[in-house]
Amino acid sequence: MGDVITNCIPPTLNVSQSASRAKNPRRRNELVTQVLRAYLTILAIIALAVTERLQGQIEQVHIEQVHIEQVQMGSIIGTVTDVNGDTVALAKVVLAGPHPNDRHTAITNNYGFFAFHDVWPGVSYLVIVSGRGFADWRSPVVTIAPNQSRILTGIRLRIATARTTIKVTPASQVQIATEQVKQQEKQRVFGIIPNFYVVYGSNFVPLTAKLKFRLAFKTTIDPVTFAGIAVVAGAQQAGDTPDYGQGAQGFAKRFAADTASGATDIMIGGAILPSLLHQDPRYFFQGTGTIKSRLGHALSNPFVCKGDNGKLQPNYSSIGGDLASAAIENIYYPKSNRGVARTFTSFAIGTGARAAASLAQEFLLHKITRRPTKSK
Fold this sequence. Notes:
Elements: H1 2-8, H2 15-21, H3 25-71, E1 74-79, E2 81-82, E3 92-96, E4 103-107, E5 113-119, E6 126-130, E7 137-138, E8 149-152, E9 156-157, H4 170-184, E10 188-189, E11 193-194, E12 198-199, H5 209-221, H6 223-239, H7 247-277, E13 283-284, H8 291-299, E14 304-306, E15 312-314, H9 316-332, H10 340-368, E16 369-370
Parallel strand pairs: 1-8, 2-9, 12-13
Antiparallel strand pairs: 1-5, 3-4, 3-6, 6-7, 10-11, 10-16, 14-15
Helix pairs in contact: 5-7, 6-7, 7-9, 8-10, 9-10
């Protein structure tokens, strides 16, 4: 184009000639006319070049439009629901192609419906759905055929999992333990017989000394406990042991002695020693595993317990409570029923009874113990 413009300027037109001829008015007019013709020629050439370029761009756009029409675009539609089948409105749906710029967004309507039109066929897309309060949902790779309207099914949003961090402090541990004891105090076999010293579940929280004494005292003064002592005293009366004689007086002595033995055993083995030795006096129900492992767990309970630190340790509290109770019986038992041999016999009976009670807890009593319903 530069050669064309150069050729359009008259060869006789130069600065010296223009200066000499400028003195002649006629020559001056001819000079102006020649300059205007040159510029008009240049403008015409520029306009022609621009027109040709625009014409090429228009033809390219037309070709692309024809190509798009020939491709036959498709569409992807679907409905977003939750796991219960209820539709989710105002959910964000993203149709993501392999290219970063190939992303389309839609919002579900009141019926959970969305639609993407003019989707390229043969392209691998992902559909990503997100909604407030829900976890994101991602589809497998979605590819459509030309002129296909594909319905995407199975879009079910699940509730987002919330993570809560709870910092357990000594104060909060006491509150949890207190609530746990309140629940245990409502545990009764057939809804009648106290079963306070059993923990169902794996949530271990150590008891404070106050709570240990609270459990022991509540068990000792429970009316059903006294009824059980009366039954034992009656059985002893029938066997004429200990040597308190017969009649109402003999029954009263046996009832008083059994009450004292039970109270000392519970208070020493369930409160005093556990508080001093930092041990837990409760039975922790296992409930799972093989019969052998459950048998071992139950039979070891009189000899192995949990410490307040959650670790297993020798059950000095239970052993000490049984032995102390048997030794104290020498104070109020008749002389014929006292002595070292009688003490260890009573200790062995108490320990054996505790092992039997643990077996009953593990395999029977949990089925017939009425427990409070957890509040929702």
